[in-house]
Amino acid sequence: MEQDDPRFRITPLQQMAASTTGALVTSIIVTPLDVVKTRLQAQHKALLSNKCYLYCNGLMDHLCPCNGNVQGPAAVSEMLKKPTHFNGTIDAFVKISRAEGPLTLWSGLGPTLILALPATVIYFVTYEQVRNRLRTWVSKPGDGLAQQPVWVPLVSGGMARVWAASIVSPLEMLRTRMQAQKTSYLEGGRALKLLVQQQGITGLWKGLGPTLLRDVPFSALYWLNYETLKLHFNQPVPTFKFSLFAGALSGSIAAVITLPFDVVKTHQQIELGDKQIYSNPPKSINGRSSTLNVIKRIYSQSGVSGLFTGLVPRLVKVAPACAIMIATFEYGKQWFYVHNMGEFEKQRSGSKEALLVE
Question: What whole-number distance in Å separates Cα of residue 67 and Cα of residue 49?
Fold first, then answer.
């Protein structure tokens, strides 16, 4: 039987604490992987061929300029100019640590967490709240995990991503515009005012469409896979090791299926970043490309394989991020559930003692 007694069910505040812990642990562990990947790309000049590049710590994508002349998470771009030559991933880890200090592997982590933490908290809390309400609506008292319809995690995951992305999208757009205006976080109001004046209130959600096109299917498939694995392996209360395994496998499956959407989104985000951060957008871009136009362009240049470019790097990033995040989150949920049970027993024991005294 799954730990889902309404008397002990964890509160939204406890869900926030569990997801925050998961986000911090995931960022600390996964960020060095993306820093090394970025340095290896820059070494071959593939990254520096554009003005902007996409940086991600496993939780969230960020647009950063390659020239390092602006503020924000783009501080990572300064390290791209380092002349060190790397012979592979392990070699890059060693040389970066020795030559530039171990903390370089976590470049850009702080500013990234400013957006990643609230986005992750909103996402996981929304998923839990929607899933619990849907299960309560369709299930009978006493039903366990086996009685949960397959569409419940599918719908819950999709709705959670829509809600989280819609809330955080204006913050990401604001951060990108702050890079363009070279303003600090304390001066963010000026960038926000200018953005609204130039593009209207809807400008705060520019670029949300491509984000949802990739992230909503990924989220829906991820939670469907994860909950199915829990049912298949009879893990109503998953162990930490199982959550690592199921999280990595679920994330990998979802990543492979949605990879074409990821490729398209990366193209569109970089185009958007070039126009937001620089006054002279690339000559190859005549207005922001629609999703269909980007697909046609990629297909005409590279065929179907072009839409599945970067599968291995995506899996290397997504699999550990999903594994660590869900395992930490599940552990936090179980800790709070046991804690709530203990508090309930204390209250009940206290009530019995009071009755005996009377």
Answer: 11
- The 3-class SS string of 180-197 reads HHCCCHHHHHHHHHHHHH
Predicted pLDDT at 142: 58
**In 3D, which of 120, 119, 152 has the Cα closest to residue 133?**
152
Q: In the prediction, which pLDDT does 78 show?
A: 56
By DSSP bridging, strand 52-56 and strand 61-65 are: antiparallel
* Residue pLDDT, tens place only, 56-97: 655 666 666 665 544 444 445 555 555 567 777 788 888 888
Q: Does this model's pTM top 0.85? A: no
**Interacting residues of 309 by C-beta distance below 8 A, sequence separation 6+:** 263, 302
User: Average per-residue pLDDT in the chain?
Assistant: 78
> Residue 7 and residue 341: Cα distance in Å, rounded?
8
Q: Which residue has the tokens 């997504």?
A: 318
Which amino acid, 169? S
What residue has token string 């061929």? 49
Phi/psi-derived region of residue 72, left when phi > 0, alpha when psi is between -120 and 50, beta in every other case: left
What is the rounded CA–CA span in Å between residue 104 and residue 82? 12
pLDDT of the residue at 66: 62
| Structural contact between residues 66 and 48, judged by C-beta atoms closer than 8 angstroms | yes
Question: Shortest CA distance to 321 belongs to which of 6, 5, 32, 118?
Answer: 32
* 29 within 8 A of 36, measured Cβ to Cβ: no
Q: Which residues pair with 115 in a beta bridge?
A: none
Q: Look up residue 103 and give its two tokens.
A: 């903390």
Instruction: Give the per-residue pLDDT at 160.
Output: 96
What distances in angstroms separate CA 153 from CA 223, 241, 300, 304, one per listed residue? 5, 21, 37, 31
